[in-house]
Specification:
This protein has 93 residues and is mainly alpha-helical. The chain is built from five helices and two strands, in the order ββααααα. The chain has a two-stranded antiparallel sheet with strand order 1-2. α1 crosses α2. The radius of gyration is 18 Å and the shape is elongated. The termini are far apart.
């Protein structure tokens, strides 16, 4: 039942997926991210990163601080409401 625990809500990655990735040889958080897409959603890992670190710490002997090669990225570019409201007026069907 715990294997069905959702770790990354944005990409719907389960704990079982993370553990399988580690068992398949993923030795860094980035490797787990590339294999499972955990941390690649709209929040860019802000929600699941700590959980990923805990899972990796629990299932490996690897120092998470050394294996932590992830960085936070802004998922979107800010846009003003004025520009957003004008965007629909310029286009014609």
């Amino acid at each position: 039942m715990i294997q069905n625990m959702l770790i990354c809500r944005c990409e719907e990655v389960l704990l079982a997926d993370i553990v399988a990735s580690i068992e398949n040889g993923a030795g860094t958080l980035k490797a787990i991210k590339m294999e499972t897409r955990a941390g690649m959603g709209i929040c860019q890992g802000r929600t699941c990163r700590m959980l990923l670190e805990q899972v990796m710490d629990f299932h490996t002997d690897i120092n998470v601080q050394e294996a932590n090669n992830l960085s936070y990225n802004n998922p979107v570019r800010p846009i003003s409401l004025a520009n957003l409201s004008r965007s629909g007026k310029d286009s014609e069907p």
